[in-house]
Amino acid sequence: MDIVDSATRSRMMAQIRSTDTKPEMAVRKFLHASGFRYRLHDRKLPGSPDLVLPKYRTTIFVHGCFWHQHEGCRKAYTPATRKEKWAAKFAANKNRDRKALQALDEMGWNIIVIWECGLNDRSQSVLLDWLVDAIRQPARSYVEWPVPDRGSQG
Ligand SMILES: [Zn+2]
């Protein structure tokens, strides 16, 4: 049973979406101030990467943990109502993300994914140092921030 009507729900979803863009703005401002030049939301590339740095053949995605279901992240919860709908929506999002990253990788692009939970004030300067290195000296074709903790997985 729905506890909110559809108008209220779409208003709630619009709010979630708009806060979703804030982390992206922080990354953009920093990169621009640091002298990096980029294109935004390039629709010619798979997944329309949030930022494209042609000089470094690098794409950057700033992902909201909720919409893109950041694994192991407390922001990646499923709302209590309409669980099936959310689950289907999240599965579609993840599938779309995976296909886009794979296609970009095959085209020879480096990929950087920044999750919004890694963009808090405390970690911001560490992130920005990491980001500059990831762009200038890519160690692998795919990296993400926060760097996943693989210690417990053997
Ligand atoms: Zn997260």
Question: What does this molecule look like?
Answer:
There is one protein chain. The protein is 42% helix and 14% strand. The chain starts with 5 loop residues before the first helix and ends in a 9-residue tail after the last strand. The mean pLDDT is 86. It is α/β, with parallel strands linked by helices and 154 residues long. The chain is globular and about 50 Å long. Strands 1-2-3-4-5 form a five-stranded mixed sheet, with helices on both faces. Zinc ion is lined by residues 65, 70, 73, 75, 115, 117.
Tell me the series of helices and strands, N- to C-terminal: HHEEEHEHE
Please count the helical segments: 4
Distinct ligands, ions and cofactors found in the model: zinc ion
Biggest sheet layout:
5 strands, mixed
Oligomer: single chain
Taking pLDDT < 50 over at least 5 consecutive residues as the criterion, the unreliable ranges are: none
* Computed structural class: alpha/beta
Number of E strands: 5
| Shape by Cα distribution | globular
Helix content: 40-55%
Radius of gyration: 17 Å
Give the CA-CA distance, first to last residue. 43 Å
For the residues shown, what is the average pLDDT? Answer: 86
**Widest beta sheet: strand line-up:** 1-2-3-4-5
